[in-house]
Amino acid sequence: MSPDLRAEARPRPARRLSRRHFLITTAVATGGAVAGLALPVAAWANDTIGTARAETMLRVMRDTFPHGPQIVSLATYQRLVDAMLEEAAADEAVKMLLSDGVDDLDARARAAFGLPFTEVTEDYAREGILRGIETTPFFQKFRWAGVFGIYNAPDLWPALGYEGPASDVGGFLHAGFSDIDWLPPGPSPEELLAQVQR
Predict the structure, then answer these.
(1) For residue 48, is pLDDT > 90?
(2) Full-prediction pTM beyond 0.85?
(3) Which of 45, 54, 159, 188 is most buried (CB neighbours < 10 A)?
């Protein structure tokens, strides 16, 4: 048997479950439609870079921040992408960044799977494509848009389990530092202080 045939005959290692894959499949299992690829882009996206590119941008945003619809709604993802499109409409450099970035992403998806990015159905496959561009300005644009648009949005904090900043109530020591329920209770601040003073 030739080396090439032996390599093909060997069993493939099991695919490791990534955090993103876990979050997406969990959302689907609980009734979420995160993995659905039919995105209603035409109803919300402006035509700055074209509807197909806007659809790809929405898919990238959802794959980069894969929360289930009970946490982050499709409308929230759409709002984030629409803000990027509005910026692109006012700034030619941003428009080129997004247009070229989407075209590059689709070229990578076609080279790997023979399909445009939005038609690659396996979430781990799309994740692999995105990992190949994660240091690019295009991907970083999505990263920071999502970080600020999702995690800095007070209306989403309850769904994300974040109680908000505690600076106005004296800090987390007095508001939320010890209210987690997934660890056994530890010593109180007074008990810790007593140990230090011994």
Answers:
(1) no
(2) no
(3) 54
